Amino acid sequence: MDRSAEVNRIEVRSGVEASAVEAFERWEAHVSAAYVPLAVSPTPTELFRGHIEHARYGDLDLTVVGSTPQVIHRTGSLIARTEDEFLLASIPLAGTARLHQDERVAEVGPGGIVFYDTSRPYHWEFDQEWEQVVLQVPLSKLRERYGVIGTEVPTATSFSGESSAGIVAQFFRGVARLQHTDPGGAALLAEPGVDLLAAAVVAASGGVARDQSADALNRQRVLAFMRDNCADPDLGVDRIAEGCRMSRRTLYRVFGEFEGGPGAVLRRMRIERACELLRTAPQLPLSAVARDSGFLTERSFYRSFRTEMGTTPGAFRTLV
Questions:
Q1: pTM for the complete prediction?
Q2: How do residues 212-225 score in pLDDT, each as one tens digit?
Q3: How does strand 49-57 pair with strand 130-138?
Q4: Which of 295, 318, 68 lies closest to 308 in space, CA to CA?
Q5: What mean pLDDT do residues 58-72 have?
């Protein structure tokens, strides 16, 4: 089944066809369309370049965005022009920057995560080339589903990769990579994205997670275990539950939003591993691809591959 979200990529750069001023005006329009109305100012430079890769997964928007140095403002007048308000989380991939909101300043760089709220003024200062994964979810959804209100969000506070929020950031960095190479896999993993982001906010604020967000944190732990062990053909639901120290009932509950439950997710992970082997090891026999991807038999590998990819492993290999 194809679960791929539509992934749109925009690139803007100055050069022969556009001056730096013209390119930046287009960039400001694209950034405001991707998020909320913003005022963007360039820092002095002869050339400008920027890119945005965007996909929507239900109530969650995920973008990979980066550019040359600039300053971004969300002002009171711009807030007044916006009907919907959002929680944003930035996960830096390259470059360092400063986020100002609520009389706090966060220095953020690769490995961390920072939250901010579009219902109140903020601004970013990027002094060097940068790239971030940015998550965006309506504040109304966080209130309705999780009881999270904007004033409880720890805005302009940088959380390291070792924190609960930082572990969630690692997950979304992986989804962003898949979004570019395997949109179907990204869409599958992003299904519980709002739950997981809400869990990160609750954990970062020192609160107690409600059932949905607690399940999201457990789900992330299980997904990590499954990714590390999916090539083991003996791995199944019972082994997953045992390895993650939870009952089968709890395991199925935390995967309630995934069609087919944990078994379907495990199968998809094995198919993704098989696709990678088919791309990178063209001489490897299909029987070995099946074995190294965690399938007990070559027959089950063919059947699962056709179900997920709509073609056979051999035909897939000829196309890559």
A1: 0.65
A2: 556 666 777 788 88
A3: unpaired
A4: 295
A5: 93
